[in-house]
Design goal:
mainly alpha; about 80% helix; about 130 residues; single chain; elongated
């Protein structure tokens, strides 16, 4: 399996992990008033970002590499800043538990790595003239 496809599957794995994390956080909010990484608005906003970022993965799966080559690096930077560094800077006191904090960072590190790999391989593997024909 080409490395690009592995990156896309890694992105889908990140999508599944991030979705489960956010859904469990919403479930926790409805039952104990404590979300894993903030209130309901924060969790819904995070879920919206997960869905938006996953559309880039779907673009890659469809083979629309020109669009993917532009969007995937953008997602990679956004995941690093908003998905990893944001949680690291906030520290564990802003989370339901230290485990919830570590999971938020770990899940987004998976997404960052998968999108970084996808960005790199999409740029490396095919010349622009051969894309989207």
């Amino acid at each position: 399996m080409p490395l690009f496809n592995k990156a896309l599957y890694g992105q889908l794995a990140w999508f599944a992990m991030a979705t489960i994390y956010n859904c469990l956080s919403l479930f926790s909010l409805t039952h104990s008033q404590t979300g894993y990484a903030g209130d309901q608005a924060t969790t819904l906003s995070a879920m919206g970002a997960v869905i938006a970022f996953t559309t880039v993965t779907l673009i890659g799966l469809k083979g629309w590499l020109l669009a993917y080559r532009f969007l995937a690096p953008t997602v990679t930077v956004l995941l690093l800043l908003g998905g990893v560094l944001k949680h690291v800077i906030a520290g564990p006191t802003d989370y339901a538990s230290q485990l919830a904090w570590v999971l938020a960072i770990a899940i987004n590190l998976v997404g960052f790595a998968a999108f970084a790999l996808g960005s790199w391989t999409a740029l490396r593997d095919a010349p622009l003239a051969a894309v989207d024909q």
